[in-house]
From TrEMBL:
Compositional bias annotation for Polar residues: 1-36
Region annotation Disordered: where it falls in the sequence: 1-43
One Pfam family recorded for the sequence: PDCD7
Keyword Chloroplast in record: no
Protein name listed in UniProt: Uncharacterized protein
Annotated Gene Ontology cellular component terms: U12-type spliceosomal complex
Coiled coil: 240-282
Keywords, in A-Z order: Coiled coil
Highest taxon, organism lineage: Eukaryota
Length: 296
């Protein structure tokens, strides 16, 4: 068994052959074997036995062959084609081809007349600029005072005192020059002009917007007052109509009451007349009886 494994280290026992049922093909093409080569660095373990889990007989598979005496062949990573824009090198590194895509994107943006947002330099703050100019003005005044003081002590000051004053003036001069270089540059002045124009435009727009809002509020107030006036007029008219209807209803009720009273009096008068007629009839009957009895 060991000699067979050394000769065929990856064989399946029992050996089963697979035969296709085709009359047009030759016997050599009936048998099909599946051989694969393993990738580099991959080893396969020898197969010593082959067990069926499905309860079928070997006779039904007498023509089947599944040789396991060869390696499984896997595709090489260098031969696999990657997604669009990605190339696989032989050493496994991925190289992205973005130049063509960037060129296509730029041409598409140009054809669509799309302007990309350019980096806009931040405009200076007006408040900070005003404070800086005011600080420069104060520094200039202090420097003038120091110059006047230096002129006064020019003949009486010693060398050390003179050097200290000159050093202080030089420091003032450097600070003043740095402030002036920041506030008197052409680009800075242009930015300040742009900022001031934007502020003025904003103030103008704000005034216009406030005026528009005020006109809208006035129009809304006018409409509200007109609506309230119309509602008040309608309410007054409705109340007057309601009062007129109530008065008319009261008059009708009063008339009906009077008619009912008159009808009641008339019915009472009729009853009295009927009673009088009955009394007269009774009197006549009594007279006739008395006549028959001979009293008359």
């Amino acid at each position: 068994m060991s000699s067979q494994q050394s000769q065929q280290p990856y064989s399946c026992n029992p050996h089963i052959t697979h035969q296709r049922k085709s009359s047009n093909l030759s016997q050599s093409r009936h048998q099909q074997q599946f051989s694969h080569n393993p990738p580099a660095g991959v080893t396969l373990e020898p197969v010593n036995s082959f067990t069926y889990t499905n309860p079928l007989s070997y006779e039904s598979y007498s023509s089947c062959s599944f040789p396991l005496d060869s390696y499984i062949a896997l595709p090489n990573t260098s031969e696999v084609e990657g997604p669009p824009g990605v190339n696989r090198a032989e050493d496994g590194d991925i190289k992205k081809t973005t130049s063509a895509q960037q060129a296509w994107l730029k041409s598409w943006i140009k054809s669509r007349n799309v302007k990309l947002e350019e980096s806009v330099s931040k405009l200076p703050n007006i408040t900070n600029t005003r404070e800086q100019i005011l600080q420069t003005h104060y520094l200039l005044q202090d420097m003038r005072l120091k110059l006047d003081k230096l002129k006064e002590i020019r003949e009486t000051a010693n060398e050390d005192e003179w050097g200290e004053n000159i050093e202080g003036l030089e420091n003032f001069k450097k600070t003043l020059e740095s402030n002036l270089s920041c506030t008197t540059g052409q680009k800075y002045i242009e930015k300040i002009k742009i900022k001031l124009s934007k502020v003025r435009r904003h103030q103008k727009w704000r005034k216009k917007h406030i005026k528009k809002l005020q006109s809208v509020r006035d129009e809304r107030q006018r409409r509200r007052e007109t609506l309230h006036k119309t509602i008040d007029e309608w309410r007054t008219e409705w109340i007057a109509k309601e009062l007129a209807l109530k008065r008319e209803q009261a008059r009708k009720e009063e008339a009906e009451k009077r008619v009912q009273e008159a009808e009641a009096k008339k019915s009472e008068h009729k009853e009295l007349i009927k009673l009088l007629e009955k009394v007269k009839k009774l009197r006549d009957l009594r007279r006739e009886r008395l006549k028959r009895e001979g009293f008359y």
